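During the no-cost extension, the postdoctoral fellow (Dr. R.K.) reprocessed legacy sequence entries with the updated structure-token encoder. One reprocessed record is reproduced below for audit purposes.
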Amino acid sequence: MERLEKYPFLLGSAVLIFVITAINSIGFHHFDEHFQILEFAGYKLGFNELSDLPWEYGEAMRSGFQPFVAYSLLKGMNSLNITNPHTQAIFLRLFSSCLVFFCIFYFIKHHLNDFKTNQKWFVILSFGSFFIPYLAARFSSESWSGAFLILGITLLFSNINKNNNKILISGIVLALSFLCRYQTGLCLAGLGLWLIFIHKISLRDISFLAGGFFIGNLFGILMDFWLYGDWVFPVYHYFEQNILESKAAQFGVSPWYYYFILMTRYGWFSILPLLISIFYLLFLLLKPKHLLTFIFIPFILIHFITGHKELRFLFPILFFAPYVVLVVWDIINQRFSGTFLSGVGVLLLALNFIGLILNAIKPADGHPKVYQKIGELTKGNDVELFYPDEKQHFHKAQARLNIHFYNRNKWPLKQMSLVEPDIININPKKISLLLVRKSTPFQHPDWQWVDTTESDWLTPLNKDNFLHFYNNNWNIFRYKNEQF
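Re-encoded structure tokens follow.
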């Protein structure tokens, strides 16, 4: 039986790439990663008001589990006098990366011998697929749900008919996956069907599994009471608001095939997500009775028929991708082995590692860096911030910039016309800064360019957005106030 410890260089390289990605992956992949975890935690820590929170808090439709973890970590950092929000964010990403790394390590350790000839590649791709360190760094519901899902399933099947206590723990871990993202319940429903009808699980084992799931959800109820100050049922409120009240549909409705269209938005890099989706489909066809097939089908099917679609909704099952790809690749290679197939594999691996490096060095989002730059520029002076009043994107930008976790001084964000930028009420006792997207040309004699949130060394690499980096970079202009 092969042991994962025989690959010390690969494990060391994996640790390095996870750490580098966590440090550089500033910001968030999506609003919810920040606003429904860190801002909730900020409310409990006291740097947010109830009125600052998104509407989901008022509807009590988000689990208190991740906000509680963030709150505990932030409170611990505060006690150690680590109070800079940008430093705190790095530690949160490192914590998330460590969690995901452990879950993947445990999964590889128990499935390494599923492969006869591709064990090394299983290790490499499980840690080194272009998206995995990036997702690992996300303190998000999608990433944590996927991490706990892969850990819970591995705990279950490495101990079934052997260790009831660990089966109980696997139930708790699967409950945490559910608490992080309720849609993972679709995967757990498929798991239950497979255990009953295919595996024929014993009553004793399923009782311990269900008991653990119940305990995990009891913990979730306590976390919900901590967050909302009342006994609430967030999973029902989530279903009520997004399905019965169609709140999710207000953010856009798309046809069933729209996920494939979303995968084409990465330019020349789109071939990888499209191919991964094909490998998943082939896995479902080639392995109809496999556990993962039962887990994937209800999850994928419901997401495809649900109107509102975002690629991040599929993230919880992406940590299984290296396993899925290599299982299907082995089958294809047995039937169609040859030089051409090997050449295709080499090209895809090269493209993957380019993506891995790019995700390791680029920020996830440019908005938190705005406040980092402002702090460096103003050095403790009072500030007022202005943003162009173009109606088509002011609301979204205002929402993204109104992030109190980073803006703990609560500098107000005000609208301003770029056409007549001098016709505003400038406060002479404050430093006035204007934030303009890099894609928006702006020049005015009263406003002096002082900085940008884009890294200087990345700019030439990303000419015409060739590398498809995030597009939330900002130019910062300062009003020519003689007092400062």
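The chain has a mean pLDDT of 90. The chain is about 55% helix and 5% strand. The remaining legacy entries will be reprocessed before the final report is submitted.
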